Amino acid sequence: MTRLYMIPIFAIFYLLPLVFCTFVYARLGLVVKRQNIKFFCFLTATLSFLLAAYLTIPPKMVLFSKLQNNAFGDLSRNVFNNVIPEWFFLYLFFGLPISACIFAFRKRELQQNLSFTTLATAILGVVTLITRGKMTRTLIHETWGDHAALIARTEAESAGSVGKVIPQTLELPPLKLHYGDTLNQITVTYETYGQLNAAKDNAILICHALTGSAHAAGIYDGDNIPGWWDPLIGPGKPVDTEKHFVVCSNILGGCYGTTGPTSINPATNQPYRLSFPRYTMRDVVEVQKRLMDALEIASFKSVLGGSMGGMQVLEWAAMYPGCVRSIIPIAIGARHSAWAIGLGEVARRSIMSDPAWQNGNYASDQQPETGLGLARAIAMLTYRSFESLESKFGRERVSDTRALTDVSFKIESYLSYQGVKLVKRFDANTYLYITRAMDDHDISEGRGKVSEVLRKMKMPALVMGINSDVLYPETEQKELMEYLPNAQYVRINSPHGHDSFLIEFPQVAVRIRKFLSQIV
User: Fold this and answer.
1) Which domains does the chain have, with CATH numbers?
2) What pLDDT does residue 53 have?
3) Do 194 and 246 form a contact (C-beta atoms < 8 A)?
4) Which end of the chain is less enclosed by CB atoms within 10 A, N or C?
């Protein structure tokens, strides 16, 4: 939906200063000299340009990218993105200067000289109102395809970046898993940013979500796409690599370098596929703990992550409370709900119903594309909200076809596109295993009541929920807040649903920076 609704709002806040200026200048009898006309024309044109820039270019790419990476910069981004209403910018950059210009010149000939500038500015304002609405529907997060966050990550200045990074691997000893099986050979892939201090206590662990990886920040050689949380990690950023040693590893069972279903089984010299043992988030954390020991980290200043990453955060607090001085679980609950489990099951059935799945024995270059693509489509719908999808797609069509099996609506095309993207970078069997491990997420299993388990997590906690999250609604985060003895709750206000923690960087940044500054 375009922002045509802004036009009457603009008109109201444009007329108010007109009336006000008319009264003031009539009372004071102010007259601006003829020689000042060029200055006021220049002022009007300049401020109109600023308006056009604000309305058509994502703010993070212009104003916000220039703000200093500190608490003031984070707060400014947060305020401009979420607090100050859009009409205020219309008034500040458009209505006020034009009003001043028109009524400052009481002589008719001077007013006539301004007529062209005023008319051009008015036309520009209306056009940019409409243009911004159209551009908003194409600038969206990487899970959309081209989100402004991805563009901001890609085109941001190099300042504050960790620069080029190289994934590292570590071989770990055999591990007995939660369900009784043993993995005799484990490789974990990880990335680090910053330096470990002499006390070995300035480390922060970042935990990724379902289809994420260890590439949380920086860029790879030959690839200019920054890591999935790059705006938050780097010199001077909320997770400051000048102060902290930041670690992010691909989870056990993943397909980005850590041992999982796509890895070679040393006993058969063939990929594990479905012979890979079942694992849980507790096993994932156990592998991370062994990585921590190998890196000689004494304790983590904080462990943070969203969605599935939040599951790992809570397990760290339950399993190794002495190793974690604070936690930041984002958009997650204490256990997977029936709603989330049901969605995961539908996604798995989509994959297993594809004949190309071949009971998990497909070749690596012959994935069950239809099934995995459908699973991704289901997930993408849950990562968003009604408002987000409606504002981006509405009932827009990509073709006028009315054929029963053809793609007609833009939302259909988008979901298909997302499926194709995931097939190129992810593995279907891995998807089955990870979603099973997510369904098994329950911090109370074998430990007592949820309330009792949470009350034992005495370290400071920053719990973050999203007001439009339909996958893990705020009620789940508020349950965490209710029982964690040393917790504070923060809401991310966004129409973008569950994925907002990967989109609303200004809101997330200001909260994380403030919280980490309080942790010793």
Assistant:
1) 3-136 (no CATH), 148-517 (3.40.50.1820)
2) 47
3) yes
4) C
